Here is the input.
Amino acid sequence: MKTYLFYDIETSGLNHAFDQILTFACIRTDLELNEIDRQTITICLRKDIVPSPNAFLTHGLTYTELALGISEYTAAQKIRKILNTPGTISLGYNSLGFDDEFLRFLFYRNLLDPYTHQYRNGCSRMDILPVTVIFKVFHPDSLRWPQIDGKPSLKLDFLVRENNFVTSGRAHEALNDVEAVIELSKILFQQKDIWKYALDFFNKTRDDVRINNIGKGIHIQNARFRICLMVSSSFGPKANYMAPVVHLGQSLTYKNQSLWLRLDSDDILGLEAGLDVSDTFVIRKRSGDALIVLPALERFWDKMPESSQQAANENIAKIRHHWELFFEFIQYHLAYKYPFIPDMDPDAALYQDGFFSNQEKKQSDLFHKFVYNLKSDHQKQELLKKIKSPRIKILASRILARNFDDTTGQTKETEDHLCLNRLRSSLKKDQIIGYKNDIKFNRKQGLQELKETEQKFLNPNQDQRKILNWLRDYIEKL
Here is the structure.
């Protein structure tokens, strides 16, 4: 039976690879949005996490609440089982832009397949934020749309307030936000033809077919290109969440990525700035993701601001005039490969190291089979000796250090596995590198953000002061 699983997460920060999920809340419904069941999972704060003060002031979770939670390893298994229930369509509000990637890295570092909830056993995923954008652009009478400081906003908590949605908790509390997304979906669902049309954008096959059926509208030299409209919340209200784009083709390196160039750019191809092609930018879209592509029909095109329409026409003329540069631009981006990061931390290496091999899956299964029965450090070491894959071994070692170390203090081995001394260090050589060549949030950054946050909240309320106090105490003692 097909069901929707509306879910939301709250996290320790914004880094998908290095921060952790703290709460996972979900409500399962049938396809008519009638509730079947609900649950919330709370997770202990990991030993190797420096909490972000901004994140904690947003969701309001306290150390006392988190201390009652389960380990991340146990939570990962529970969450994965929920998402992989046959026929599950998992969805949230900006879930493809935020939550889903957090889940992917949660599963990966806990030696679980990061992708099965997207395709196996009739499971799939979608996102209510892009659907909401479709209604905002093309059917604005569906909802009351909030204005913040005179500017439109699609933030969920503002939509809740503007439309008087009934929920049971505070804003940015995971289960409360799930209830809000369901209330929003019930309103959009009333226009079933539009709802079904929008949902098909998250079906990879149908999304590809729709794009391939769009005619190639312009000729440049001997080549033909599709001119389309792309709809995304990321384009912002000034552009009415739309951008004219030209389809450049499929990436030669990453077969699941199609490449697109915005035609409302102020400096198409970097002509005015004289940019090298390596400094230019394209949009990379994956089939069934949150970027919605429409044909450039007049009734759609006219929804764009006149400035966007005019820029598109001018930039098409520039592309035709500088066609040699345009084709050089295309060839560069079609062949582009993300740079290899030699010192990337294993927790962040999902994309660079790729899928688990069959042999690695067998070694992971061996670990999962015996890990709960380990009674001593000797048994832990004996299990690790049976694991031959270097990345499975280090991820397994970290699972043990994070979830199965019952001592209140830290052994040197635990500190080494979790890089705790590097998190305490302010030296550049000790930074822990992620897949975007970013760094894991460390103690120095935590204290700096705390200082800035305390300056911003000159008169915090009692709950905010309580959170700030425990954060300062916690981060200083790391």
Remarks:
- The chain has three domains: 3-190, 209-335, 346-441.
- The longest helix spans residues 174-189.
- The domain at 209-335 is CATH 3.30.1520.20 (PX Domain).
